[in-house]
Specification:
Elements: H1 4-18, E1 22-26, E2 29-32, H2 34-46, H3 48-69, H4 91-101, H5 105-114, H6 118-134, H7 138-149, H8 160-174, H9 178-194, H10 198-214, H11 218-235, H12 238-254, H13 258-275, H14 278-294, H15 298-314, H16 318-334, H17 338-353, H18 363-380, H19 384-400
Antiparallel strand pairs: 1-2
Helix pairs in contact: 2-3, 3-4, 3-6, 5-6, 5-7, 6-7, 6-8, 7-8, 8-9, 8-10, 9-10, 10-11, 10-12, 11-12, 12-13, 12-14, 13-14, 14-15, 14-16, 15-16, 16-17, 16-18, 17-18, 18-19
């Protein structure tokens, strides 16, 4: 049963539906009857001050939901209205509320911009970025950010100029648009330094490090990540510190510097745990397990991955769920449990099928990774024919994959 404070609004909405003042096009979604909407617009035009106050309050609700639902934490949003804490109990509640709004969130940003609420348009687009990216809704993130960026000059919050560019870069990295993202992060870095916005400077440096890493420029990545980590530490920005440490660790790992990589992952885990958001922690745990697998520490890798899987499942991060499950399968193969490993790899393939090749740039890479690991598990179980089928499937996916955007 819902608590009283949740039942009252629901009962009120249901009574409005009964009197045909409000329509319910689908369960849990409400809209004004057309005639009521026309009347409401006339009232708003006649009382512009009251309408503006109501509009700002409604936009504030979307802003609080988006900031509460994201992984970036309070340090990620140092400007703008502070969360009241009364509207949403926690990130789950806020995320469920945004999920119920569905595909209309970009329209909220456009509405704010069209009605002269430039600050709210920018704040909401920024706050929705992590929520959209985590769900693989990259196009919506990019569209909302581009709308907001077009009104950033009208915003009173100067932080928005670098912040929105950092968000565009962050979205672009997940789309594997590395050259575009690098250019946007570079702009954000210059603006953040000019405007004395150290938080955005830390995010821009971390973004540049991520692109460097993706393009194989390990030394440049380490330098950018180290500078971003120093700033993030000083600001108590745990999410940025965790991502900087993670990127630095991966760069060391790719260069074969295992001890340095372990030290970076350890610090990244400390910051992710301090941030308290399951999505960020799950991603760091999953990546930190890679170095343990490389070093042959299969028990340690298994422990990290068993922590990671429920965390990324909790936030609906399908990509990292599949990634973590297949690595857990590899750990189990090396522990002498190939049948358990095979089951885990098939779970990973099931998760992979929930992704779309149209919206997830890592779709084909992930399938090849899972099937390669599954093939080795079949070999360990003495099932050579099934292993061969998996390795052939990897070659088929490789040949059929689309060209990578730059």
């Amino acid at each position: 049963m819902r608590p009283p404070h949740q039942r009252r609004p629901t009962q009120a909405l249901e009574s409005l539906v009964d009197t045909s003042l409000v329509q319910e096009p689908r369960p849990g979604r409400y809209r004004l009857h057309d005639l009521v909407r026309v009347h409401a617009r006339r009232v708003a035009a006649a009382e512009p001050r009251e309408a503006a106050a109501s509009r700002t309050a409604a936009l504030g609700l979307f802003l609080e939901a988006a900031r509460t639902a994201g992984d970036w934490g309070a340090a990620g949003f140092p400007t703008g209205p502070r969360p009241s804490g009364a509207r949403f109990m926690d990130w789950r509640n806020a995320e469920a509320w945004l999920d119920a709004v569905g595909g209309e969130l970009v329209d909220v940003v456009a509405y704010a911009a069209a009605h002269g609420e430039a600050d709210h348009a920018c704040w909401i687009a920024e706050a929705l970025c992590d929520y959209f990216v985590r769900q693989g809704r990259y196009h919506e993130s990019q569209t909302a950010l581009e709308i907001a960026l077009g009104h950033a000059d009208a915003a009173t919050d100067a932080r928005m100029a670098p912040a929105l560019r950092n968000c565009l870069g962050y979205t672009g990295v997940h789309q594997r648009r590395y050259e575009q993202s690098y250019a946007v992060f570079t702009e954000a870095l210059e603006l953040s330094r000019r405007l004395a916005e150290p938080g955005q400077e830390a995010c821009a440096l971390t973004g540049l490090a991520t692109v460097d890493l993706s393009l194989g420029r390990s030394e440049e990545s380490i330098a950018h990540a180290a500078a971003g980590l120093d700033l993030a530490r000083s600001l108590g920005h745990h999410w940025a510190a965790a991502m900087s440490g993670l990127t630095q660790g991966l760069s060391h790992q790719f260069e074969g510097r295992n001890a340095e990589a372990l030290a970076c992952f350890t610090e990244a885990l400390t910051h992710a745990e301090a941030g308290g958001r399951p999505g960020a922690l799950g991603r760091v745990l999953s990546c930190a397990a890679d170095i343990q697998l490389r070093l042959g520490r299969y028990g340690e890798a298994k422990d990290l991955l068993r922590r990671a899987v429920p965390l990324v499942e909790q936030v609906g991060d399908v990509f990292f769920c599949a990634r973590s499950l297949t690595r857990l399968g590899t750990a189990r193969t090396h522990e002498g449990a190939p049948n358990a490993a095979i089951a885990l790899h098939h779970q990973a393939l099931h998760q992979h099928r929930l992704l779309s090749p149209l919206t997830q740039p890592g779709y084909h890479w992930l399938e090849m990774d899972i099937r390669t690991r599954l093939g080795h598990a079949y070999l360990a179980a003495g099932r050579a024919r099934e292993a061969q089928a998996q390795f052939q499937a990897v070659l088929d996916v490789y040949d059929a994959r689309p060209a990578r955007p730059r």
